Structure formats: structure tokens, C-alpha cells
């Protein structure tokens, strides 16, 4: 008869077989992905049942015959299944191991079958009510409890009772000790896998952020062949991947690395896995050349992870990372991280594009308000000359036509300050005809400021306001001064000043206030407020119109704009 330390030694040897098999299984990428995932889905539970039910059977075959029964490590599988996947996983794995043990017969067959199922279920309940991370100590305590219960079940169920007592007296201490240690070692092995995967994930996250930092300005141009090629080159250069590709919903946009000689930009998408990623919006792993579906005989790409690029939760393309062999969990995590960051960048690019469209639409709306306003005043002026000075009226109509011809340009097409001043001259020609010798126009313009790009029709409302509301009420008329000076900081200060009737502080305060969607009730407010809002819409909230006025002394309407190319302005 084997004494306790002999059974202990043999069980330890058998237990190492089970641990070794577990370790070898853990090397498989699919098993590592499973162990690395702390949350378990229904499919994961089924996998746990199969894997650890099989491990339980192996533990039974590695048993030591003793006293007509088997001293074994069968319990390790069901207990690990329960600790990882909960009651269902533990029960399922225990059922597989228990039924198998029952089929082998012996006076402890029924007791061992019941105890195997009970131990798996017990571990699952421990997982359910103590879902915190597993520890080696906790696993050891769970193993001690499970094996103690097994001994009690043998005593309660196995007959003859004397044989059961004799068996338990021989196997209880070795099995409780060895199997508890085996469960603890297995849990520590799983923890080590998780730790490795977390470290690898952290490194890949850092790499993803570095790649995202470089590709951010590239994807702000949107997803096209040019940006996709630049992004694919960055990803390929910063990783050890064999190939990197990006697609839209229909065709390959860029492919860098192995296979670039026949995976050409512009080709339609052929991979079923890519179509599946676009349809489901989830990542897909192609683990064989057939799944990649490349018909080229010399293609060395045998595996790929394909992740959709999303915009507003809808797939707009895919990111594909290729390997010549097998795709690892690190590749999958890298692909998911990059795709998430790229999707965010694409959404930002789309939002910026929509913001530019909205700004252009707002400028169109503001111009639409200005044009009828000016046309009404100009036609009144021309009408006053039709009978008394028809030639003057004709010339004024020519000036008016020239004014509106220039005004037909797109609102997004900026003009130079020189062009805007020429535009104002046409306007002033109309107004001077009305004011005659009561109007004096003074220009204080620096030559370096004339090239500054400005929105069209920016200054005309200011000049019109100075004439109509500043000078027109005065019988003797007055002067309008247009100033423009460029500063060393790259800004140009522009002002339109009059020495007319001026305004009270209260009226000045009301001029730039939007009164809902209705026109401002303050006289002269439409044009000035439009200029103010156009400046803020184009240049940002730090810009706008500034008005200074004193009753009886006149008004100064001033603005500051950056002397910068509009394309650079939009890009920034």
C-alpha cells in the first residue's frame, strides 16, 4: 500500500502533466486571447466547458489506482472553469469530467461524478459572488474547499462504507494538498498571461498614440488615396507588420509592404473578410490565404486583421494589417486601437468640413441681407438724377452695375484690401452724387496693408453707415476717413471714421446685439451687425467690430483682421 508521501509524490507528478498541458494550451494565440479577456461571453463559457472538461478527463487518465479507486487531478479542470467563467462553466466542465469518470466504473464512480460536478459548480458560485480578480491564495482556498467536499461526498455516497473510509484515509491529504496547489499554480499562470497581455497592450497603446499623433494632420484631409497612402506608410514604418492597407467601402485606397505589386490602389475590394467588416462594423480576423482571397500565385500574405473605420457609427472604410503567418493578439489590439483613433480623426475632419460649409452658408446669408439694403439706397440716389441729370444717372448706373458685378463672387473668395477699396469707390461715386460738395472722403492707407485678404463687402456697410446715419442728418455734411495700417504682429487695423452726429453709449451697445432672428430695431444696425458676425464667423470669437461714438463728435467703426492667406487660416 502506498503511504501518504508516496501518493503525494505520484499525484504531484501527474499534476505536473496537467499543468504542462495547460501551459502548452496557453501558448496558442486563441487560448491566450481567451485568458487575456477578463469578461466572458456566452461563447466564452462554451469554450471553457469544452477546454476544461477535456482537461478534467486528462486528469482522470493521469490518475493513480489505489484501493479500487483513482487518486487524480480531475478537479483542476472544473474548478478553473468555474473560477474563470462562473457557475455554468464550472457545472458544464464538471459534468463532462464527472460523466467520464462514472463511465469508468468502480465503487467510487457515482461519488466522484457527483463531486466533480459539485466542485465545478462551487468554484462558479465563488466567481459569481466574489468577481474580483483571481489570486493564487484565493484559488488555493477554493481548491482546499473543493477537495474537502469531494472527500465528504465519497464518504456519504460510496459503498461499502468501510472501503470508502479506508480510501479517504489514504488519499484525502495528498489529493487536497496537491490539487489545491495545482489550481493555485494554474491561476497564477493565467494571471501571468493576463499581465503579459496588459503590458503588450500598454506598449501597443503607446505606439498607437504616436502613430495617431503623426497621422492626425493627414486624415484631416479626409479618407482618400493620398491620405491613405501617407497613413499606411507611417503605420508600416513604425511597426514590424508585413503589410498595411486602407480601403474605402468599395476599393483599395493604399497598400504598403508585401503584396504591393498586385494589391493595387483603385482595385475593388475582393476579400470576403473586408466585406464582412464593412457590413458588421466589427473587426474580422482572416487566418488563411483563402480568407484573404488573393488570387495572385506569389502572394505571401496568409493572415490579416481587418477593422472598420467608422464615421458617425457607420463604416466608411477599413484598416488592414497583414502577416505572412498568423495574426497575434497584439496585432489585433493594435489594429483596434489604430482604427478607433483613425475613426475619431475622420469624424473630426468631417465636422470641420461641415463647419466650413456652415460658415460659408452663413456668409451667403449675411451678404444676401446686405445686397438689398445697399441696392435700395443706391437706386434712390440714381432715381433722384434721372430727370435733372440723365448723364449722371447713366454713369451712376454703370458704377452700380460694376459694383454688383464684383459682388457676384463667391463669399469664400476673399479679396485684397485694394480690391475692396476699389469696390467702395464705386459706392462712394453713387453717394457723392447725392451729397455733392457736402461729402469729403479721406484715405489714410498704408501701402503694405493693401494686399491683406479680407471678406468681400466688409467695408461698404461701414462707409454706408457713416454717410447715412452720421453725415446725412447734418445740413453741412462732413468727412469720412478710411484708415488701414499693418502691424508687426501680422494684423491689419482698419477703421471707418466720420465726424457726424455720433451716437449715445446706449445706442452703440444695442447695435451689435442680435435680437433673435428679427432685424435689429436700431437704425443702421443691420449692416454693422452683419459685419460683426461675419468677422466672428470667419476669424473666431476674438474678432469682431468695435464701435466708438460720441454725440456731436462722430463715430469710429474699427476692426482688426489677420493678414494671412485664407487657406492657411482655415487649416489652422
From TrEMBL:
Residue ranges of domain Histidine kinase in the record: 458-565
EC number: 2.7.13.3
Main localization category: membrane
First-level EC class: transferase
InterPro entries the record matches: Bact_2-comp_sensor_kinase (IPR050640), GAF (IPR003018), GAF-like_dom_sf (IPR029016), HATPase_C_sf (IPR036890), HATPase_dom (IPR003594), His_kinase_dom (IPR005467), Sig_transdc_His_kin-like_C (IPR004358), Sig_transdc_His_kin_internal (IPR010559)
Single GO MF annotation: phosphorelay sensor kinase activity
GO cellular component labels: plasma membrane
Gene Ontology biological-process annotations: cell wall organization
Key words, A-Z: ATP-binding, Cell membrane, Kinase, Membrane, Nucleotide-binding, Phosphoprotein, Transferase, Transmembrane, Transmembrane helix, Two-component regulatory system
Topological relation to the membrane, as annotated: Multi-pass membrane protein
Parts forming coiled coils: none
Record's catalysed reaction(s): ATP + protein L-histidine = ADP + protein N-phospho-L-histidine
Name under which the protein is recorded: histidine kinase
Source organism of the structure: Heliomicrobium undosum
